[in-house]
Amino acid sequence: MKLQAVFLSAVLASLFIGCQTAPAPCPADSGIVPEIERAGPEPTTPEETEVYEPVPAKVAVAATGLGFSTAPSDATVLFDGTHLDAFYMAQDSTAAQWTINKDGSMTVANRTGNLQTKENFGSMQLHLEWASPAEIMGENQSRANSGVFIQQRYEVQIMDNNDNPTYTNGQVGALYKQKVPLAMASAPSGAWNAYDIVFHAPEFNEAGQKTKSGTLTVFHNGVLIQDHVTIEGIIKYIGWPSNEPHGDAPIQLQDHGDNSRVRFRNIWLRKLGA
Questions:
Q1: Which whole number is the average pLDDT over 146-160?
Q2: Does domain 38-271 have CATH number 2.60.120.560?
Q3: DSSP letter at 200?
């Protein structure tokens, strides 16, 4: 019995060690989400984390557009076309400088910086509508590039990909540099698009270790393009995602700094419980 007990202890110990190094959590582990095992050294250039194939299929959307909606009664309205009071400039917390248009939309003010909500948010259902300019300028990542950064860290890409190929994990609807969208469902250049995003925030213990990964679901003009995908960590332009602990945090809208002229309207969210 003693030899059997020693053998059993050795087996259990080896299984425990395996759970710590496996690329996915084991049922018997401590509840900590292990870091993803990756081949090779950490990338040192942006090109090393760009993915070009396979290219998501382009799907046609209804002429009238799907996914456009008004805020429900329990929503937190961030932008209704009348003011920018829910936002300030991300870099210095000064008054929002983006332009409100006569049609109730707002336009990125080039090189003024990102907009950031004054309020912090956790898990949420987020709705926003955006449009690229009808006048085509730039190519690749410099054509109508913007993005919505959930909790300042997790970007859903906004850009004009109509007849404008780029790396697929950086195209419209991508969880930037992490998840390629299932389809490309953009409206024609200059027309309005709608994003409906369901985000469940990651969780961390008191030691700062991730105990639950965040997830993301995205509908683009009513088409499912991100299906409850696991967020690997904080997005990085260069290198692998990282997992510094954090709590509730603001939403940011990106000024890409290359005269994107992206417009936004009808932005609201519903706070979701744990």
A1: 97
A2: yes
A3: E
